Amino acid sequence: xxxxxxxxxxxxxxxxxxxxxxxxxxxxxxxxxxxxxxxxxxxxxxxxxxxxxxxxxxxxxxxxxxxxxxxxxxxxxxxxxxxxxxxxxxxxxxxxxxxxxxxxxxxxxxxxxxxxxxxxxxxxxxxxxxxxxxxxxxxxxxxxxxxxxxxxxxxxxxxxxxxxxxxxxxxxxxxxxxxxxxxxxxxxxxxxxxxxxxxxxxxxxxx
Length: 207
What we know:
Number of helices: 6
Oligomer: single chain
Order of helices and strands: EHHEEEEEHHEEHEEHE
């Protein structure tokens, strides 16, 4: 039996291996062909209109979404990638976490606002979104923006420190409360920050 304690998030890191993998053209093309070889299904996100030669796909396990660039049909590329994890282990409620997120620098204009639309789509589908275990500075800024947006949308935002093995959610009142008290303690370089997480929920979470 695996006795490794569940780790929360977010520890700040400078870069991720998958980012380096997808940034390199040769390995990006290899990853795209590998993904498409398993016959993924077409995927639709409300409010997302893609130009010709681009298509959104999801794998059969429903945990990997890829935006495929078929400008060169013989050598498709991944323009955007997100992997998700759906589990009830983190806060004793079924929730979704984006465990991999990557956007191609080559498709900046196309991808403006796209990560936010994917996040909002997943929040609508799974109701509860939880921050991932490790985040780059870009990932941290993305979550800060999602938290601010959550308050504007009248959603619920929580902070949880699982350092002592407990799952107690602290309700964050508003954006000022978040930036004044919770942002300074929620992220850091040390491994202790693997045990800290933020939660955005469309409904109040009872404990």
